[in-house]
Amino acid sequence: MHERSLVRGLLRQVDQIAAEHDEADVAEVTVEVGPLSGVEVDLVKIAFEEQCGVVDLAKDPEGEGSLARSTTASTRLEVLEVPLIVRCTQCHAESDLSDFVFRCVSCGSGEVQVISGDEFRLISLTLAEGANHAR
Amino acid sequence: MPAETIAIDRDIQAEKRAAAEGLRRQFTERGTFVVNLVSSPGSGKTSLLEATCRRWRDRWNVAVLVGDLATDRDAERLRPYVAVEQLTTGGACHLELSLVEKGLAKLPQVPRDFLFIENIGNLVCPASHDLAEHLRVVCISTTEGDDKPGKYPKMFRTSEVMVITKTDLLPHVPFDVANVTEDARLIREDMQVIETSAINDIGIDAWCDLLEQRRDAMLAEASES
Ligand SMILES: Nc1nc2c(ncn2[C@@H]2O[C@H](COP(=O)(O)OP(=O)(O)OP(=O)(O)O)[C@@H](O)[C@H]2O)c(=O)[nH]1
Ligand SMILES: [Mg+2]
Ligand SMILES: [Zn+2]
């Protein structure tokens, strides 16, 4: 399971962004996950719960003390699942794939490029009303 | 202060991707062709590397970084033939670029021609980690079933070459080379397929030729730009 380290990277970025916004606490984090991202949605949710609000050095496996200062145990994670879509390099049709058979639905060609479905993106942050962790 | 939503829209792994891209460029400039070998545990990655490095001992300047959760057994197997450094992940199920960088720093010298990175035996997590390689190779042994590509789509989508290992066992196992090839090519139509038996030294020539051709192509492309 590599989701733990991915979430660690995510929370580091969340902290940075919160720091640029008056050290506000974060109420909600919205991410986008594609079926080809290599990221399991359930595992991301578990890792997020584990790590949110963890500032205790002893609980931080990589010993990076400033971890997750802007999140709290009540910070929510919203996961938007995006579809796997490929574009055919032969006929340029776009196919919405329901499984991992990389074929153009229009002409059957296997020369297709992924245009959506491999993303793990930070979409937005909602700051908590009035809360602030600068102390 | 009222609740405020900040729109971000960024790739969470952008920094890591850029770091891998940068290191790959350095390897390209140096002429070092980097291969990331992935497979499930015990598919024969180390055996394939033993056969390769034995053959290339006097031909190419090669080094190997070999990942393992624990122990340096694989490194010890390769040491007679090649400069090798063990990357112990301490439990992590995949190699990350930072570990590769540490391993590189420990090697007596950066290899001139080829660098092999043997990943942790796992068909899931290593698929998502760019180790600055030029070529990702997935090994599948004849003992693990010919239905694996479809079950691990990301790994097979991101690999350009599939090495079918332990072909000496084909008479004893229900494994169809045509089936596994077809399954892999549903995920990646241009998958290159090579069959090897490390213990009988079969297919190692074709494998070595492929790597030399790929390195030549990298050098040619680099000198054009
Ligand atoms: N019959 C046969 N056995 C092989 C062949 N290649 C490897 N083996 C055996 O398969 C077992 C695993 O081989 P390794 O080379 O250690 O596999 P690996 O992928 O490096 O394993 P991990 O690093 O632990 O994931 C060993 O017992 C090898 O002797 C082969 O071509 N034929
Ligand atoms: Mg090994
Ligand atoms: Zn088409």
TrEMBL record, chain A:
Gene3D superfamilies per record: 3.30.2320.80
Highest taxon of the lineage: Bacteria
UniProt KW keywords: Metal-binding, Nickel, Zinc
Molecular function GO terms recorded: nickel cation binding; zinc ion binding
Binding site for Ni(2+): 2
GO biological process: protein maturation
Residues that coordinate or bind Zn(2+): 88, 91, 104, 107
Record's signal peptide: none
Keyword Zinc found: yes
Stored InterPro entries: HypA/HybF
Function: Involved in the maturation of [NiFe] hydrogenases. Required for nickel insertion into the metal center of the hydrogenase.
PANTHER family per record: HYDROGENASE MATURATION FACTOR HYPA
Family annotation (HAMAP family): HypA_HybF (MF_00213)
Family: Belongs to the HypA/HybF family.
Protein's name according to its UniProt entry: Hydrogenase maturation factor HypA
Automatic annotation (TrEMBL), chain B:
Domain CobW/HypB/UreG nucleotide-binding: 34-194
Tagged with keyword Zinc: yes
UniProt superkingdom: Bacteria
Gene3D superfamilies reported in the protein's UniProt record: P-loop containing nucleotide triphosphate hydrolases
InterPro entries in UniProt: CobW/HypB/UreG_nucleotide-bd (IPR003495), Hyd_mat_HypB (IPR004392), P-loop_NTPase (IPR027417)
GO terms, biological process: protein maturation
Keyword Zinc: yes
Keywords assigned by UniProt, alphabetized: GTP-binding, Hydrolase, Metal-binding, Nickel, Nucleotide-binding, Zinc
Pfam family, one: cobW
GO molecular function: GTP binding; GTPase activity; nickel cation binding; zinc ion binding
Xref: NCBIfam families: hypB
Family: Belongs to the SIMIBI class G3E GTPase family. HypB/HupM subfamily.
Stated name of the protein: Hydrogenase isoenzymes nickel incorporation protein HypB
Lineage: Bacteria, Pseudomonadati, Planctomycetota, Planctomycetia, Pirellulales
Name of the coding gene: hypB
